[in-house]
Amino acid sequence: MYDIAIVGAGPAGASAALFAAKAGKKTLLLDHDKSMTKRAWVENHLGVEEISGPDLVDIGRKQAAKFGAELVTGAVQGISKTDQGFRLEAEGASYEASQVILATGISVELAENAGLKTKEGTEPRIKQVFDVDSQGRTNIEGIWAAGTAAGVSVHTIITAGDGAQVAVNVISQLNGERYVDHDVLKS
Question: Picking from 24-28, 33-37, 105-109, 168-172, which range would have the lowest pLDDT averaged per residue?
């Protein structure tokens, strides 16, 4: 069983996976490899002069994997509650996790079959988003949402930050105390 399963490996999901794996949590990152970021050209991401969306997504996945996140390519078709957490069904495979973070970009298709509440989106062309609180919690305890799917701006730097923030909230809940990850310069 995974501590945290993240659905979607765009900026929000990869950032969440990076934080979760670096915190020592057994992390699964599931992705259908159709992120809208893969069509982007990015020149407004702090610390990056310019980068293609596909390269940004690839680097994010590599960063998460560096710290031990397991990456699986496949679309998640369903999420159901179990005694221990949740079961995720994805293209002929099943995975179990204590906590789930949905970072599904513009898609909220998983909401209906999982019983998750949605609300009207505020971003242009984003019709529906998961209804979350300020921490990223949905109406089902243990399922969280981050990034555009949770109603934040579609800009990669914002969705990446939101993914990190939600992951920190999940890690903090799992640890029973506030989690902080600050690296220092190596001499």
Answer: 33-37
